[in-house]
Write a structure and sequence with these properties.
This protein is of the alpha+beta class. The chain is built from six helices and 19 strands. Strands 12-13-18-14-15-16-17 form a seven-stranded mixed β-sheet, with helices on one face. Strands 2-3-9-4-5 form a five-stranded mixed β-sheet, with no helix packed on it. A three-stranded antiparallel β-sheet has the order 6-7-8. The relative contact order is 0.20.
Length: 270
């Protein structure tokens, strides 16, 4: 951990197979295909997370957002780069029906968080800005249950310990734990410091839709949870205990939506 709590962006653009991540001077967070990543722009939150603004939309945004959460990047502009359809994918069929281009679908086809970016992880050298990270928690405990065997409990954090602690179980598998630092991203998983092999395992982790209940799917769900809650939901301080099942994004995105509907967001730093 470091003392600085300033925001970070990329030093230079990172190009993957499905999108390019560009540095961003503004401190407005993440945008994908020009659409701000924020709960107010989410229009689908079950098996995937999609956002829209006007007639524009971006599909499967949870995967690039999870990558940025893991790496501790706060401000970036993501642009889809696909130029061909794959109509076996539901997101492609919906994007086509909306008269969008294949670039609207930014999630990797292999179901991973960002397996195509693994080789670039060691070359990512974030640039620290002068603006501090906004640390936000909730004003009170929240306990929510959603269909599909999904449950999330949130305990508020405070300025004396400005981190997000996570306990996660997927389909009843053995619980995993993680520590997310609002400035530096994911720091610890199951007691192990994040290093290249662990980052590779996380970024390459495919969803349960492909692997079934597995440690790999649980790693994938951890990335999704961090992206959905800490980045999209902008709740980055506190303690999350999540038991997830089918269509769990209704839970991880749902926490941030519920918090805003009930006016529970509380800034504790910056």
């Amino acid at each position: 951990m470091v003392n600085s709590m300033n925001r970070r962006t990329l030093r230079e653009a990172i190009r993957g197979k499905y999108y390019i991540i560009n540095p961003k001077d503004e401190t407005s967070g993440i945008d994908i295909n020009g659409i701000q990543v924020h709960p107010s722009n989410v229009f689908h939150k079950e098996f995937r997370v999609d956002i829209k603004s006007g007639s524009s939309a971006a599909f499967l945004i949870e995967h690039p957002v999870a990558v940025l959460a893991i790496l501790g990047i706060h401000d970036a502009s993501i642009q889809g780069t696909r130029d061909a359809w794959d109509f076996y994918r539901p997101a492609d069929r919906e994007a086509f029906s909306r008269e969008l281009t294949p670039a609207a679908v930014v999630g990797p086809a292999d179901g991973s968080l960002g397996g195509d970016l693994v080789r670039m992880v060691t070359r990512i050298n974030p640039v620290e800005k002068q603006e501090p990270v906004t640390i936000q928690t909730l004003k009170k405990e929240v306990d929510l249950t959603f269909p599909g065997g999904n449950h999330v409990y949130f305990h508020p954090g405070n300025a004396s310990d400005p981190v997000l602690k996570v306990r996660l179980s997927l389909f009843g598998l053995e619980e995993i734990t993680a520590l997310y630092h609002p400035r530096d991203g994911l720091q610890v998983v199951n007691g192990e410091q994040l290093d290249y092999p662990l980052a590779k395992a996380l970024l390459s982790a495919r969803s349960a839709a492909i692997t079934g209940p597995s440690k790999e799917a649980q790693f994938h769900a951890l990335g999704d949870l961090l992206g959905d809650i800490a980045i999209t939901g902008r709740i980055n301080c506190g303690h999350v205990v999540a038991s997830l099942g089918m269509a769990y994004h209704r839970t991880t995105i749902g926490l941030g939506m519920h918090a805003r509907e009930q006016d529970l967001i509380e800034r504790v730093m910056a």
